[in-house]
Predict the structure.
Amino acid sequence: MIKPLGSRVLIKMKEGEETTKSGIILASSAQEKPQIAEVIEVGPGEVIDGKNEVMNVKKGDNVIVSKYSGTEVKYEGTDYIIVKQDDILAKVE
Protein backbone atom coordinates (compact mmCIF):
# COMPACT_ATOMS: atom_id res chain seq x y z
CA MET A 1 0.00 0.00 0.00
CA ILE A 2 1.08 3.59 -0.55
CA LYS A 3 1.76 5.52 2.68
CA PRO A 4 1.96 9.32 2.18
CA LEU A 5 4.71 11.30 3.90
CA GLY A 6 4.40 14.59 5.75
CA SER A 7 1.10 16.40 5.34
CA ARG A 8 0.15 14.54 2.17
CA VAL A 9 -3.04 12.56 1.65
CA LEU A 10 -3.72 9.63 -0.72
CA ILE A 11 -7.15 9.97 -2.33
CA LYS A 12 -9.24 8.11 -4.90
CA MET A 13 -11.59 10.17 -7.03
CA LYS A 14 -15.27 9.26 -7.03
CA GLU A 15 -16.75 8.37 -10.41
CA GLY A 16 -18.67 11.15 -12.17
CA GLU A 17 -22.28 10.81 -13.28
CA GLU A 18 -22.68 9.15 -16.68
CA THR A 19 -26.37 9.97 -17.01
CA THR A 20 -28.10 13.32 -16.52
CA LYS A 21 -31.19 13.63 -14.31
CA SER A 22 -33.37 13.56 -17.44
CA GLY A 23 -31.78 10.26 -18.55
CA ILE A 24 -29.36 11.50 -21.22
CA ILE A 25 -26.17 9.42 -21.32
CA LEU A 26 -23.05 11.59 -21.51
CA ALA A 27 -19.94 10.73 -23.51
CA SER A 28 -16.82 10.59 -21.33
CA SER A 29 -15.47 13.75 -23.02
CA ALA A 30 -18.62 15.68 -22.02
CA GLN A 31 -18.50 14.67 -18.38
CA GLU A 32 -17.28 17.15 -15.82
CA LYS A 33 -14.25 16.00 -13.84
CA PRO A 34 -15.38 15.04 -10.33
CA GLN A 35 -13.89 16.94 -7.41
CA ILE A 36 -15.13 14.64 -4.64
CA ALA A 37 -12.73 11.97 -3.47
CA GLU A 38 -12.38 9.34 -0.78
CA VAL A 39 -9.39 9.53 1.58
CA ILE A 40 -7.47 6.25 1.35
CA GLU A 41 -4.41 7.00 3.54
CA VAL A 42 -3.17 10.00 5.54
CA GLY A 43 0.42 10.99 6.25
CA PRO A 44 1.66 11.65 9.79
CA GLY A 45 1.79 15.45 9.34
CA GLU A 46 4.72 17.85 9.23
CA VAL A 47 6.77 18.68 12.30
CA ILE A 48 6.57 22.45 12.90
CA ASP A 49 8.48 23.97 15.82
CA GLY A 50 8.87 20.54 17.40
CA LYS A 51 5.14 19.74 17.26
CA ASN A 52 3.31 17.47 14.82
CA GLU A 53 0.81 19.27 12.59
CA VAL A 54 -2.75 18.08 13.15
CA MET A 55 -4.20 16.27 10.13
CA ASN A 56 -7.78 17.45 9.54
CA VAL A 57 -8.89 14.39 7.55
CA LYS A 58 -8.87 10.67 8.27
CA LYS A 59 -9.09 7.47 6.30
CA GLY A 60 -12.59 7.01 4.84
CA ASP A 61 -13.55 10.71 4.74
CA ASN A 62 -15.10 12.12 1.56
CA VAL A 63 -13.50 15.41 0.59
CA ILE A 64 -13.60 18.11 -2.07
CA VAL A 65 -10.20 18.84 -3.63
CA SER A 66 -8.85 21.59 -5.85
CA LYS A 67 -9.53 20.75 -9.50
CA TYR A 68 -5.95 20.47 -10.76
CA SER A 69 -4.09 19.54 -7.59
CA GLY A 70 -1.93 16.58 -6.71
CA THR A 71 0.15 13.94 -8.41
CA GLU A 72 -1.58 11.06 -10.18
CA VAL A 73 -0.29 7.59 -9.32
CA LYS A 74 -1.32 4.18 -10.64
CA TYR A 75 -0.75 1.38 -8.12
CA GLU A 76 -1.81 -2.23 -8.65
CA GLY A 77 -4.21 -1.19 -11.44
CA THR A 78 -5.97 1.54 -9.43
CA ASP A 79 -5.66 5.29 -10.02
CA TYR A 80 -4.90 7.44 -6.97
CA ILE A 81 -3.88 11.05 -6.40
CA ILE A 82 -1.47 12.28 -3.73
CA VAL A 83 -2.37 15.80 -2.57
CA LYS A 84 -1.16 18.12 0.15
CA GLN A 85 -3.60 18.65 2.99
CA ASP A 86 -3.81 22.32 1.91
CA ASP A 87 -5.35 21.22 -1.44
CA ILE A 88 -8.33 19.71 0.39
CA LEU A 89 -11.05 22.36 0.47
CA ALA A 90 -13.81 20.70 2.51
CA LYS A 91 -15.20 17.48 3.99
CA VAL A 92 -18.43 16.07 2.59
CA GLU A 93 -20.76 14.76 5.29
About this structure: The chain has a mean pLDDT of 84.
